[in-house]
Amino acid sequence: MPRLEGRPVLVIGATRGIGLAVAQELARRGARLGLTGRDPERVRAVATELRAWGKAVDVRRREDLVEAVAGFARDVGLYGLVYNAGTSPAFTRAERLSLEVWDEVLAVNLTGAFVAAQAFAQRLVGEGSVVLVGSVLGFRGGGRLAAYTASKAGLWGLTRALALDWAERGIRVNLVAPGWTETEMTQGLREHPHLGPALLREIPLGRMARPEEVARMVAFLLEPENAYLTGGFYAVDGGVGAR
Ligand SMILES: NC(=O)c1ccc[n+]([C@@H]2O[C@H](COP(=O)([O-])OP(=O)(O)OC[C@H]3O[C@@H](n4cnc5c(N)ncnc54)[C@H](OP(=O)(O)O)[C@@H]3O)[C@@H](O)[C@H]2O)c1
Fold this sequence. Notes:
Blueprint: E1 8-12, H1 17-28, E2 32-37, H2 40-50, E3 53-56, H3 62-75, E4 80-83, H4 99-123, E5 128-133, H5 137-140, H6 146-166, E6 171-178, H7 187-191, H8 195-202, H9 211-222, E7 233-236
The structure holds NADP nicotinamide-adenine-dinucleotide phosphate (NAP).
NADP nicotinamide-adenine-dinucleotide phosphate binds near residues 19, 178 and 181.
């Protein structure tokens, strides 16, 4: 029997890349799925394909994000939350990083995760599981990626704080930290004639992750059977973090 059978799980940022792979994996495992993305057409298309509840949300609009969690709770129920939305619009040295970009990256990657998780915990009755999608750069540091690195390191702190606050309520909180993964976010790098091959040499397993490989870890952490896992981070990085 699929191990998430009948469990309502909402994925924030699920219409492409890792988030889409997570939604597909959760649907396969029998979850009652909810998903968000920014583009209403894409949300409709993916929700229809996966027979999911869907809502278009820009996570920088906090009231909309809270309303998405509340709407899913009302319409479907609540057991799991995956916060996958993330952005990395600038690859630039810290002294040239604008505060506008800093604010945007922190809003999407970190504040959105807190807003969604808080709205989830405020409405959840009974046990639950939250998975935040961080990055291996949140532990290692990424050159020319000050805002992104800070936001992902912040998610690791947030994971532990929420796990402690909510353990007695039976809400588990874990962080999945992907390494380089084959999505639109890394397309430019992969296609770059020098940076692409140089990057692959840095990965002990010699290739980027496929989105499905990250998705399987997210699904594993959500499963009620894995009830003793909370406050942890789980790298899916081809060995990069071992360096
Ligand atoms: N690819 C990698 O190498 C890698 C490595 C480590 C960690 N990660 C993390 O994995 C997660 C997924 O990344 P990905 O590689 O799948 O990237 P992606 O293809 O660029 O997808 C980014 C996701 O974030 C959502 N998003 C961005 N800004 C948003 C906003 N303002 N409001 C709502 N949603 C927003 C996007 O939604 P829309 O579709 O609506 O734009 C999309 O679902 C991110 O948190 C990323 O930081 C990726």
